[in-house]
């Protein structure tokens, strides 16, 4: 069974380590803030100038002036800081973000990512993604494996305008976790109940499948 948006966020949250500075992109990545594992502390960074984002607010906590890069209202964790976007991008461009989580429209076997434009459609645009993919070494892309029409988003070569080249090493989809190396997708984990055959069928780029592919584990 394909993973929900919340399950994707939970799986990404398993990659967090104590002391990390983390940037969460627009869409599914923002949900990671709700699933930070107990016992670790991370500082969530937003390119509009907030370091130390907390979980999404309850109705009583909503402050319309406190937003993330996607214009969603957020909370601030203990020790949070607010500064201008120039300082925020200096942090990103200087390589001071330990983990970046981004959404995407397409990813290919060379590690290229297309995430900001679909010709003829109204999309939010580039935002800080171009700086994030250039300034971060540790990037996880989370996305659906295929479109609603069953067209693969994991390609041999991206068809949409690129956000960054040769910068993506790991992709988490609603079907699988994959690593990109040697111009191939390497299957690491599969979603519970999802068959390897389904993953292969919906992956347009070349895929390497090991003898044993474990199912993802989610704590209940």
UniProtKB/TrEMBL annotation:
Keywords attached to this entry: Transferase
The record's GO molecular-function terms, alphabetically, read: succinyl-CoA:3-oxo-acid CoA-transferase activity
SUPFAM superfamilies, A to Z: NagB/RpiA/CoA transferase-like
The record's listing under SMART domains reads:
CoA_trans
Cross-referenced PANTHER family, in alphabetical order? KETOACID-COENZYME A TRANSFERASE, SUCCINYL-COA:3-KETOACID COENZYME A TRANSFERASE SUBUNIT B-RELATED
Q: Which family does it belong to?
A: Belongs to the 3-oxoacid CoA-transferase subunit B family.
Which protein, by its recorded name, is this? Answer: 3-oxoacid CoA-transferase, B subunit
Which species is this UniProt entry from?
Shewanella psychrophila
